[in-house]
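seq:
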Amino acid sequence: MAPQQPSSMEEQTGEPCEPESEGEKQGSKSDKNHPATCDAPDGGWGWVVLVATILVLALTLAFPACIGIFYLDLQDEFEASNSETSWVPSIMTSVLHAGGPLCSVLVERFGCRATVMFGGVLSGLGMAASSFSHSIVDLYITAGVITGLGFCLSFQPAVTILGHYFVRRRPFANAMSSTGTALGLCVLPFLGDYLQSKLGWRGSFLVLGAVLLNCCVCGAVMRPLRPRKPKKSEVMSNSPSSPCKKGCVPGICQSLGSFLRRHMAFDLFYSNLRFRVFSLAITWMMLGFVVPLIFLVPYASKTMDPSRAALLLSILGFVNIFVRPPAGVLFSLPWFKGRHIYVFSAALLINGLSNSICCISPEFYVLLIYVLTYGLSMSVVGSLMFTVLMDTVDMSQFPSALGLLSIMESVTLLIGPPLAGMLVDRTEQYTYMFLACSISVALSAVFLMVSFYLLDSRDAAQKNSLPASGSPAKPAINMSTDCQYSSVPTDGDKTNNPSSEA
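struct:
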């Protein structure tokens, strides 16, 4: 849908009614009239929302990778193996994605602003509580489950409301928002290393919990879009409220089915083949995509000072900061429309193959080449991830599609780091782990590229065979109705009747 140019002053005086938070109240009216009643400003207050989204992503998505700064300290404190310690960032990242359906329910009930602020409070309390942990299991609950759920409730609503504020400039907005992850990778390793040297890991976790409360400030500025023409047609909103008339079991099944349809997009998964391929490929990719970031600092600490090893993560963040904005501008050009998936797949393939560079040596300059290559490809992958998803599904289905994709990702994100830690414990070498990540990510990129190429070829063949049979009929009907309509005013011109009959 082409975005109209609304009066921006009218839409930026936000009333507390968001497009996604009114679905429960307005029922079927919201589904039909939502694109027409709320237009994206593509600017104005949307730039403030974009800056807030960047900060939210910096504090949430980049945080699990920076747990590697405290990896060796946690091992020494709790006398845990690589596999046991890797469960902490693994659970945190998995819950960050698995909380998608719960986040979708809260967004629909309370709106994006309140959900982001609640997530900031939850993540801050989780990290503060983790500083008092007495066992590795306590960290699984506080830093893993509670903090990860807070990250989910902050991250997903921020991305959702950004998609409603930008339509025409959506690739640029998504690329700019993805620089938040890069910003977090730049700042958080320096901050974590400094806090570790001054306060230890317990004091560092307490301070980082206070830092995470800034998500509440970011959520406060995410005011909802105001509908252009509010209508009083909410009479039909009472239709889904009578499931338990004749029995609780059929009513519960019916409500559960509608819940899964609305918040987890299972029907979209079965009906939309492109979304199915994309979600399976991303799930496969996540098995080895974030693992190198968790084990990079412990691997580099074998040959260099831990503070210098943390510098590698910061360099990775700086590369993302400088590459993602130009990538967003570049991929917003009309030539890339419809080609985002192929650029995404190529960057993902390079990203996967770059992990094999770590198998050469743990020296600083070898790892520097790896970080630069990984950072360049990660910039393109991060800037196009949500753009490709928004190209694959309709924007009204984006929150539920993101919820289902997050659930699927959480499975591989949960088992990926512990499997990698188990591989390191068995072989006592990190090279096999990096090689396994390289193979996993590269194969997912090949699967994604080949699948979409076959789907595009099939659609092109169907489009070429369609005009031969049915397409000329529509212009013929339109021409006849146009001519008949335009001949009515000229019917009184008696001089042209003989020539027209002839």
